[in-house]
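dna, SC020
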Amino acid sequence: MTPARCNLKEVSFSHLFPAEVARALVGGLTLAIAYMHSRGIVHGDIHLGNILVKLPSSLNHLSIKQLYEEYGHPETVPITHRNGKPLPPNIPAKAVLPLYLGKDAEEFSLSDAQIRLSDFGETFNPDLEPRLGKDCHTPLAARPPDAWFEIQTSLSYSADIWSLATAIWEIIGMKAIFSSEYTSVDEVICQQIDVLGSLPLEWFESWGKRDLYFDDDGVPKDGRYVWSSIDGAFEEGVQKYRRKFGMGEFDGEETAAFLDLMRRMLTFRPEERPTAREVLQSRLMVEWVLPDFERSSQMG
């Protein structure tokens, strides 16, 4: 694989991509997932840490001197023995720290929006090697709910579609649709219900910790924090920050198309989610995302 510049997680933490760059990144990611699915492969671990940014071609033309001028000289740290003893002869006296070639999200231009999907350790062919829900290792905030409620059922391409939706949201916004701060499965399930609406009844009734968050009618318990619905989450986690930092707010038409696609991709029942091909055929992709992706591709 071509060396990467950085991953999207580290450059977008507390930062926003310009709107056209965000669209181009979303287009590249969706096309990559669609290609994998067309080859019969589920990625199984889609999140921003596994989406790498391609190194700029201009780097190949820099001399060593120019490289140091642009990115700084190598930094070293001394290596010492924890017990204070002299180092063995096969251990170097210094270590060179990795060079960070990334830049903050707001500094990205369309020419930078060239990505590489990485980490194929969780990939599988659902027709040849079934992957049960209980064996899903996608980070909690990006994990599809069927992995929790149908632990003995095989996952398929629809699991990627859910995780892809969470990645798309995080690329275009300041805040993820489901908070990655929580390590409890039950807290994430609670948040998913607040944002998206009621679980399928059989899932809700089988959820052992539901009484901590909801009454028997599915109404949030008094005193707990209630997350905003998907429309409110978009306003609070995307639009508000884009207005505040002048990073390109989405107009009414694009917002409607975006939320429509998110609702379809984040449908609780996996069989009701669109395929990757259908995602690419959505209005959001055709009218806004793919045109900016094509523009970025011509610059790469």
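thats it. Residues 62-100 form one domain. The chain has a mean pLDDT of 94. bye
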